[in-house]
Amino acid sequence: MRRAVCPGSFDPIHNGHLEVIARAANQFDEVIVAVSTNYAKKYRFRLEERIEMVRRTLSAISGILVEPMGEGLLADYCHERGASAIVKGLRSSSDFDYELPMAIMNRQLTGVETVFLAAESHYVHLSSTLIKEVHDLGGDVSEFVPRSVLARLDATSSGRGA
Description:
Elements: E1 3-8, H1 15-27, E2 30-35, H2 47-58, E3 64-68, H3 74-81, E4 85-90, H4 93-110, E5 113-118, H5 128-136, H6 147-156
Parallel strand pairs: 1-2, 1-4, 2-3, 4-5
Helix pairs in contact: 3-4
């Protein structure tokens, strides 16, 4: 079985994430979407909420498993799960510059390869941070997030922005 891990904080998951994960599911027998927590970041949604949003969003795609990544190195997580690859979406050359050293380190640590998937052109500008900011200021982000995520954003941003 060819298994890959698609890691991310997904705060919140958006259509750019969804597109990369769906393409990964076409390339691998199983894709583990590992919802991570970076303690240097301030999150809008708790880990449990992010996992639930990701599960709901990806429920129609076969071969997807959603779970918390937990603490520790991504390379070790992949090794423990029997994953041969990490899937990362790239929006720009700056994403590549950021991701390449980690890809090399992960391969050297456990032999796990990183597969880079170029984002679709209509999603290259998306980030979870930008979506939250635009939404909080009264902008319409419905084109960029699943309906269930938009509902969660609406519920958490009352009283913010415009």
